[in-house]
Design goal:
Helices cover 59% and strands 7% of the residues. By secondary structure, it is mainly α. The protein folds into two domains: 179 residues, no CATH class; 107 residues, no CATH class. A three-stranded antiparallel beta sheet has the order 1-2-3, covered by helices on one side.
């Protein structure tokens, strides 16, 4: 029988602590995994570097910032109640929660070692990114296992100051992990500027395709971009996503033209490599911050032949 009666407060405090703990650990591991992926890229991945925050980093950062402090606050309340009433340490919900956490941490350690040994015995290449991920899971699971084993044995109740130091250390780790992301993948503001620059590149590529179509149709380049506007095809010349200004266009000669735009940041070579993998034509859209021009041409008539007129309908 229970030595102490479990109250609704006990149940929801421990349930909340367990949920926030697991969610925080998942967010922490996922966030560091994304950092590792970004720092040690896999060449098989495409379109990853165009916006690192789209890979889940923003959600993982937000989850860690909110849930980790909630877990620490809940554990502070739980330990404060136990210090006031030692019988709170004997409620069944505490014992079940702690042993379940130990089971999950132990299972994670075993699975992590199995994955490592399987990769080694099967002759797979043990890349640095793989080893870092295995080491991360092992360290997190081992730290959780040791911490809550000490909790079951009453170590933190006997040394409350040390428990407080651990809480501060966890809070510092969360803060360092989140702030480190701004140095590894850039700030959210930089990511937004990167997305806007990517939109500018896509707009220029769209305009370029329409100029090529115009050349095939009329066998000449348009004098201005306004000549590309066609109500029948619903084409509208795109504008800069930030300023709303028109992109610069200039005819160099009869078959060569130039497109210019003003970019916020220098292009990321890895993002350009990712886009090149998804495009059948390897075009160079690398740019510096500020005004950058791209010269295209001369247009090869063999590659871009003139459109043949459709045969007129024969009257009945």
């Amino acid at each position: 029988m229970d030595k102490a009666k479990t109250t609704p407060k006990d149940f929801f405090l421990w349930a909340g602590a367990m949920v926030t703990l697991y969610a925080s650990v998942v967010a922490f591991i996922g966030l560091v995994f994304d950092y590792i992926n970004y720092a040690f890229p896999d060449t098989a991945l495409v379109s990853y570097y165009s916006d690192p925050y789209s890979s889940g980093i923003a959600y993982e950062m937000a989850a860690l910032i909110v849930l980790a402090p909630m877990f620490l606050i809940l554990m502070h309340i739980i330990r404060r109640d136990i210090a006031r009433d030692e019988s709170r340490a004997q409620v069944w919900v505490r014992r079940w929660t702690l042993f379940f956490i130990l089971f999950a941490a132990g299972a994670a350690i075993v699975v992590d070692l199995i994955v490592l040994l399987t990769a080694f015995l099967s002759g797979e290449e043990l890349t640095l990114r793989f080893l870092l991920k295995v080491l991360l899971v092992l360290l997190v699971a081992a730290a959780g296992f040791m911490h809550f084993t000490a909790d079951i044995r009453g170590y933190w109740a006997a040394f409350p100051k040390r428990a407080q130091y651990v809480n501060w250390a966890v809070a510092a780790l969360v803060a360092v992990t989140v702030v480190a992301g701004f140095f590894i993948v850039g700030s959210p503001s930089q990511a937004r500027q990167m997305r806007l620059d990517q939109q500018r590149v896509e707009n220029l590529a769209y305009i370029q395709a329409e100029i090529t179509r115009y050349f095939q149709s009329k066998q000449k380049l348009p004098a201005t971009l306004d000549e590309l506007v066609d109500p029948l095809s619903y084409f509208v010349v795109p504008m800069d996503p930030t300023t709303g200004a028109a992109y610069e266009y200039r005819m160099v000669d009869a078959k060569t033209f130039e497109l210019c735009a003003t970019f916020a940041l220098p292009s990321d070579a890895r993002a350009e490599a990712s886009r090149a993998k998804t495009s059948p034509i390897d075009e160079n859209w690398q740019h510096e911050a500020g005004r950058t021009c791209f010269t295209r041409g001369p247009i090869d008539p063999e590659l871009y032949p003139a459109y043949k007129p459709l045969p007129s309908a024969t009257p009945l």
